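Researcher: Structure for this, please.
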Amino acid sequence: MTPLPLPDRPDIYYIVAAFLLATGIFGLLRRRTLIGMLISGELIFSAASLNLMAFNRFRAPDPAVGQIFVLFIMGLAAAEIAIALSIIIAVYRNYRSVKTRELTELNG
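Model: Predicted structure, token format:
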């Protein structure tokens, strides 16, 4: 019995997606700047996209469904970037910093 070639093994894709998700969650918890948190959020979106595409490739009978979901995630990520960067720019203009520890006036 010969092993499956690397692109035909779904577990590789699932492991990479889990690694991206873990890296994104770690980055959200560990980063102290708003830009670092934004990048970590994008890693989480990338993990979700990779997971959906892997499920689509190996499990779904219709290949268009997973691709539509990934396009939706990409649009959501673009909207998130636009809104988050505008908020970060506004915070920087008011407080001259993007570090979360220095933004004490935002406490509710």
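Researcher: Any notable elements?
Model: The mean pLDDT is 85. Helices lie at 10-30, 34-58, 63-95.
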